[in-house]
Write a structure and sequence with these properties.
The protein is an alpha/beta fold. It has 43 helices and ten strands. α23 packs antiparallel against α24. About 50% of the residues are buried.
């Protein structure tokens, strides 16, 4: 039952309860109070009741009987309270059905109308449905005035991110990226009305668009949510703010937040109480200060849009002065004062800007870092400035500009340390962003000529080792890593160290050492957390991608999924755009290994959309090939061909060598050409073998077996099983051996093992191939039981189409209506005689039917029959 269904059910119960006088709906602005009230009154009308409506407004709140004037019978000139009550009561009494009165914005009723409402409730002439905004002093007062009446109440809350995601997919009619739903939830605060206007504005401005696979919002989300309707609504709310409170609201709109002493003055305290009660501001304790923010960021957008330039400048400089007078006691105080000064005047002294920009970069806030750095005059930009600027540009995905700045910085380098810092940044930009492998290696090679210190050697080795791993040479990468110290020579090498740690675990996974890989990834994450204030390139959650990879290859698919979703949440919150691409990519791979091509396609599509948005060419080929393989397995050959064609436009650096070729192979399968598919997979497996990427070789060889050549790959898989750990590899090799031996009992054991690991498609296929083998052997009952198990598993795979599922499964024979009656009665424990008497047939007839039922369902006793019937619904 959805939340709205539950609320309507609560309304119906209260409506039918004669002791209940009404149904009160409370909630913040825009959470759907009016919509729910409308659905309630529609439900009442459907039940045959008369519905009347009263809309209270602030403008009419001073007019006696203003809101209920339309309820006074036509021609009646009553003006006194008793006359009005009598006239309305008479009109309602003449109705031959129950009257449901909807009062919208109940707290805004004028005092006279409110008294009439009380009299009508006292006389039991109406059932009241009311809406009221929470966190309002007026609302609280009206709630107190209605306490004497038994009312059912519901409180509508702002929607959480998961619900926003579902709402967006329903409204937009397609998949929506998690970054998009995160940003829209953040900006709307989960408020339905604000969310609707945000989406409408984003679609109209083309900031939110669908690439054919997934809806994705532009990188900067550069659109105005302040549509005319929303602007009018917010301004009407703000117009009611007393003049003495408006200045604080303006400060919050421009600066985002402000703070006071933990013991504010009585005047400040009264202002804070009023704004908090009205739902306009949120107040919380922050150490020795009281932190104040706007309740919704859209309030700030509307206020800013309507604020004169010099008023904005006045506010910013006033806040800077207040903060400096108070003392820049906290780390972020200095940052805020610098940022506000730049926003007000366009400049500040170089050291202040540089220090504040470095703080922003260290906090992974690259947009603010760039804003501060770009305020430094060109003549004052030295190598330290250029390096920081280049770092921030790399992380902000401004690839071309970053390379331009870093090349300029390299020309100013006067010693080895400066040179290598620039080289390290250039390698991150050239290779890790765009996949320009040859250019990155050329930069490293040239820098080597000038390296003489241990620190310099460490950084060079780190760059080379990580590129080797990423380019599908894990053994060589590990050898280079192991030649380095396990601890950095000094604090200047922290970033090289963290990146080296990030690729140690994948190298171990690729060589089949998943247990070591899991340990290495967990240690890398803890280390990155410890050194996060010094990390230029890696958010700590980036290290979790290595853990997801290792967990999934080891067969811990559910834990890999959980870690992946947690990592994605962290990088979204941190605005770590590049890390978001790879988090989505690894989640896609978890779903692919789990045999869920639908979710895998979504995540690969999301990774591709993010990579496109953030100019991450290195990630594009892998994401698109993964998308193509999933689309092909779902039978969408057009989607697969389109993705493969786009993938060809991006560099292939050897990332998970051979794995990308699965896209072409599964497209061949979808086209019905298994020979071509096996040929492609064989070539890919050979590449993986030559590169020493064992985990990929295992997956490719298993696919060859699934497509009909188990005997041809058994020997090599047996060799790999001896040098690769993890339950997943062992289970897959066991299954291939069972296929080669045509051993259905072993296949069924594998189906159970795969199901336990969460590899649903392999589990369904194992049961399907067992069914086919038993059928060939004439074991009809066992074949049917295996087919039923496969059929029960297949829905988890979301429409996957593979040769095993398409050709090896024959649907279990359907029971006739009489057989189903007998089966259900027998499963409940009735004897054959009991069933015969119940259905007025002979006992022998029941026994004959049971023989057929057991054969059709592949069961042999009452217990198995009950389990099968429960499983098949």
């Amino acid at each position: 039952m959805t939340g709205r269904d539950a609320e309507l059910s609560s309304f119906e119960r209260s409506l039918l309860d004669r002791d209940c006088k009404g149904f009160a709906i409370h909630g913040a602005l825009g959470v759907g109070k009016s919509r729910l009230a409308g659905e309630c009154t529609k439900r009442a009308a459907d039940l045959g009741m008369k519905v009347m409506r009263v809309t209270a407004t602030r403008s009419a709140s001073d007019v006696p009987f203003g809101a209920i004037a339309h309820m006074i019978p036509s021609g009646n000139k009553a003006t006194e309270l008793t006359e009005v009550v009598s006239a309305i009561s008479a009109g309602l009494s003449s109705e031959n059905k129950r009257v449901v009165l909807l009062v919208e914005d109940l707290p805004l009723l004028d005092p006279s109308s409110r008294i009439v409402l009380h009299r009508l409730l006292d006389a039991d002439l109406i059932f009241l449905v009311s809406t009221a905004r929470t966190a309002s002093t007026d609302s609280a007062a009206s709630a107190v005035s209605l306490q004497q009446y038994p009312l059912a109440r519901t409180y509508l809350e702002d929607t959480d991110q998961a619900t926003v995601h579902r709402l967006l997919e329903a409204a937009l009619g397609g998949s929506v990226s998690r970054r998009t739903s995160y940003e829209l939830h953040l900006k709307s605060g989960g408020n339905h009305l604000f969310l609707r206007e945000l989406v409408r504005a984003a679609v109209e401005s083309n900031s939110l668009k669908n690439d054919g696979e997934v809806w994705e919002i532009s990188r900067d989300g550069a659109f105005s949510a302040a549509t005319p309707e929303l602007t009018d609504l917010i301004l009407s709310r703000l117009s009611a703010i007393p003049a003495e409170d408006r200045s604080l609201i303006e400060v919050l709109a421009i600066c985002g937040e402000t703070s006071t002493n933990v013991s504010p003055s009585s005047q400040e305290e009264e202002t804070l109480i009023r704004l908090e009660n009205e739902g306009l501001a949120e107040v919380s304790l922050d150490g020795q200060r009281v932190a104040v923010t706007l309740a919704h960021p859209l309030y700030g957008e509307v206020i800013q849009k309507n604020m004169p330039l010099f008023r904005r400048r006045q506010i910013l400089l006033g806040q800077v002065a207040a903060m400096e007078a108070f003392g820049l006691r906290r780390r972020d105080d200095f940052f805020k004062s610098a940022l506000w000064r730049v926003e007000a005047t366009g400049s500040a002294d170089k050291q202040t800007l540089y220090r504040a920009a470095r703080m922003a970069r260290d906090a992974h806030d690259y947009e603010q870092s760039l804003k501060l750095l770009e305020a430094v005059p060109e003549r004052e930009r030295d190598i330290a400035f250029l390096l920081l600027w280049g770092d921030s540009l790399v992380q902000a995905s401004q690839i071309s500009k970053a390379e331009e700045v870093l090349v300029q910085a390299q020309s100013l380098a006067s010693n080895e340390e400066e040179l290598l810092d620039v080289v390290f940044a250039r390698v991150q930009n050239l290779f890790w962003s765009e996949g320009r492998k040859d250019e990155a290696l050329a930069v490293i090679k040239e820098a080597k000529k000038n390296v003489v210190t241990p620190s310099g050697t460490y950084k060079i080795l780190s760059s080379e080792a990580t590129i080797l791993v990423a380019c599908g040479q894990p053994a060589a990468g590990l050898e280079a890593i192991e030649s380095m110290a396990h601890q950095p020579p000094g604090p200047k090498e922290v970033n090289a160290w963290l990146i080296t740690l990030a690729f140690t675990s994948p190298a171990l996974t690729m060589t089949g050492r998943t247990e070591e890989a899991i340990d290495a990834a967990e240690q890398a994450y803890e280390t990155n957390l410890k050194y996060n204030d010094q990390a230029l390139y890696l958010h700590p959650a980036t290290q979790l991608n290595s853990l997801i990879l290792a967990l999934s290859e080891s067969g811990r698919l559910e834990r890999a999924r959980t870690v992946g979703l947690g990592a994605l949440e962290q990088v979204l919150e941190a605005r770590a755009a590049i890390a978001t691409v790879w988090a989505a990519m690894h989640l896609a791979r978890v779903e692919w290994l789990s045999g869920h091509p639908g979710p895998a396609r979504h995540w690969y599509a999301e990774a591709a959309a993010l990579a496109r948005t953030h100019h991450q060419g290195l990630a594009m080929r892998w994401a698109l090939c993964g998308l193509a393989a999933a689309a092909a397995q779902l039978g969408d050959t057009d989607g697969a061909r389109k993705a493969i064609a786009e993938a060809e436009r991006y560099p292939d650096v050897g990332l998970f060598v051979g794995e990308n070729m699965s896209a072409t192979a599964w497209l061949n399968v979808a086209d019905g050409d298994l020979v071509a598919a096996r040929r492609v997979l064989t070539a890919a497996a050979r590449e993986a073998r030559d590169a020493g990427v064992r985990n990929t070789e295992v997956a490719l060889l298993v696919d060859i077996a699934r497509l009909g050549d188990a005997r041809g790959v058994t020997s090599r898989l047996t060799e790999l099983a001896a040098c690769c750990d993890g339950a997943f590899t062992a289970a897959r090799v066991r299954y291939v051996k069972a296929l080669a031996a045509d051993d259905p009992a072993e296949m069924m054991a594998c189906a159970t093992e795969f199901e336990g690991l969460g590899a649903d498609l392999l589990a369904a296929e194992s049961a399907a191939t067992a069914a086919a083998a038993w059928r060939r052997m004439g074991e009809t009952r066992k074949a049917t039981a295996a087919a039923n198990q496969s059929a029960a598993l297949a829905p988890r795979c979301g429409g996957a189409r593979t040769p095993a599922l398409d050709t090896a499964i024959e649907p279990a024979a359907a029971l006739t209506s009489r057989e189903r009656e007998i089966a259900i009665l027998t499963a409940t424990g009735a004897s054959a005689q009991d069933v015969a008497e119940s259905l007025s047939i002979s006992r022998r007839t029941v026994q004959n039917h049971l023989y057929n039922i057991y054969g059709k369902l592949g069961v042999s006793n009452r217990s198995e029959l009950k389990k099968t019937l429960n499983g098949n619904g």
